[in-house]
Amino acid sequence: MVGGIVLVSLSAIPMTVGLLAATCGDSGSQNCDASSYFLGGMAITGVLVGVGIPLILIGAKREGAPTASVAPWATPHSAGLALHLQL
Q1: Percent of the chain beyond pLDDT 70?
Q2: How far is 79 from 3, CA to CA, in rounded Å?
């Protein structure tokens, strides 16, 4: 599950690079190959999200519900703070 979360989180980096490369092509610069950077960034983003989401879903099914137990020494009458007054 953690691996899926990391992969989906990291997918923002190539997506940002691809979108910034698309704006590079609009500036009219001759040394900018915007289409290949954009397609590469979107392809890597798709792979990371496509692998990360199933890992999150599979991990969520395997985790199970958390369980809680009360130790034998913790009873409703003995747990917590108490104030005793002696007159």
Answers
A1: 61
A2: 40
